[in-house]
Amino acid sequence: MTSAERPIGEFLLARGGPFFELQGRLGLLREDALRAPSRAVLFVGLAWGVPLVLSIIAGNALGPYDQLPFLLDPWPWSRFFIAVGLLVLMERHAEERLRLHLHQFTRAPLLAPASFEPAATAVNRALRRRDSGVAELVCLALAVAGGIAPLFAVREVVTVVWAVRATADGPVLTAAGWWSLLVSNPIFGFLALRWFWRHIVWALLLRDLSALELRLVVTHPDGNGGLAFIGHYPKAYASYVFALGCVIAASIYAVMLRVGMELTTYGVIMAIWLLLVLILFAVPLTAFGRPLRALKESTLLACSAQATRHFRAAERDVLGTNMSAERGAESTAAADNPDPSKIFAAASKCSTTPIGRAALLPIAAAALAPLIAAGATQLPLKELLGVAKRLLLF
Fold it and tell me: 3-state class of 362 per DSSP?
C-alpha cells in the first residue's frame, strides 16, 4: 500500500476528536479497541440508570400509568436507554462499513493514477474535520441548551411524577428530573449531534472524491459505472436512524395520549420523517451524478459515432453502396468497425446516481419501525402497516 493509499483505506469515522481522547484518558477505550459494549453500559447507566435509582428512592419508579412513573414512561426509555445505547454500540459497525466502502476506491481501483494524492489530501482534510474540537464544542453546547429547554415547560409535565413533583408553590423538578435535564438529555443530545456532524464529514468527503478523475466504465454490471457499492453506505447508519426514530415515536406517543391522532395525520408524520431520513442519506450520493452523467453522455456519443461507421460499412457489404450520401463513401469493411450496440445499450441503462431501493430500504424500515410500534398502541395495526408499505414502495 502506497503512502497515498494508506489514509484512504484507514479512514475511521468513529475515532478522533476531544471526546474520543477524553474517553481514552479515562481508560474507557484504546486506539485499537473501541470497547463499545462496556461504554454503552456506562453511558446508559449514567443517562437512564441514575434517574431510575433516584426514582426508586423517591417511590416514583412504578405507579399508576396515567401518572407515567419512570419505568412506564417511554420518554426516558427511548432517549436514555435505547438511543444512548445504540449511538455507542453502532460505532464499530458503522466505522468498519464506511472504511470498506472507502477502501473500494483504491481496491478496484476507481481512482485514476493521478487522483491518489488528491484523494489522500481529501481524506486528511476529512480527518481534520472529524477531529475538530470546535465542532464537538458546538455539539455539546447545542445538547446542553436542548437538554435544559424543558425547564420552561415544567408546568405542562406535572403529571409525570418521576420528573415533576406538585407542591403548594407549584410544580418543581424531582432529583431524577434534574439529573435528566442536566446530565441525561445532554448525553443523548451530544451523541446524536456528534454522529450527525460526522455524517456531514463523510458527505463532504464523498463530494471531494466525486470531483476527482475516476476510472468508471459504463458496461460495469452494477449499472452505476462501478460506483453502486457507495450507494449502500446508508446501511451503516440504520442504528442511528432507529435510535432517533424511537425518540420521535415516544414524543408522538405522548401527544397521542393527550389529544389523540387520526390515522391520516399519523401517516403524514410518518411520510415526513421518512422523507427527511432519505434526503439526509441520499443527498451525499448525488455528488457522483456529475461523473456518471459525463460518462453516460460521452459513451453514448462515442457509440453513436461508432455505430454510424459500423452499420454504414455493413450496408455497403450487403448492398454495395450506402443509400444515403453514397458519394465519397468510406472504403472500410464492417469487420474493421466493431459493433458498439451492446455498449450503447449498457450506457442507455446506466443510472447516473448510485442510489437504489435495495440500499435505502434498510434505513427506511429502521425509520418507520418505531413509529409503527408507537402508533399501534392507539391506531389499527393493519392500517398502519398498510401506510408503511405504501411509503416503503415509494
Answer: helix
What does 199-249 look like in DSSP terms, one character per residue? Answer: HHHHHHHHHHHHTS-B---TT-TTSSTT-GGGGGGGGGGHHHHHHHHHHHH
Longest dimension (CA), the chain: 106
Residues 6+ apart with CB under 8 A from 257: 378
Q: What are phi and psi of 128, to 5 degrees?
A: -65, -40
331 HSE (CA, 13 A, CB side): 0
How many Å apart are CA 331 and CA 317, to the nearest integer? 10
Cell of 156: 405542562
Q: How far apart are CA 320 and CA 322, in angstroms?
A: 7
Cell of 185: 438529555
CB atoms within 10 A of CB 17: 20
Give the DSSP letter of residue 27: T
Chain centroid offset of residue 279 CA: 9
Cα 369 to Cα 363: distance, rounded to the nearest angstrom: 10
The Cα–Cα gap between 196 and 187 comes to 14
Q: How far is CA 52 from CA 77, 95, 165, 167, 381, in A?
A: 10, 32, 16, 22, 31
**What is the rounded CA–CA span in Å between residue 307 and residue 145?**
64
Identity at 31, one-letter amino acid code: E
Rounded to 10 degrees, the C-alpha dihedral 15/17/19/23 comes to: 50
Q: What is the pLDDT of residue 368?
A: 95
What are the tens digits of pLDDT across the range 339-354? 999 999 999 999 998 8
Three-state secondary structure call for residue 14 = coil
Mean pLDDT computed over 180-200: 96
- Is residue 184 a contact partner of residue 47, using CB atoms and an 8 Å limit? yes
E strands present in the chain = 164-167, 170-173
Sign of CA dihedral 139, 143, 144, 146: positive
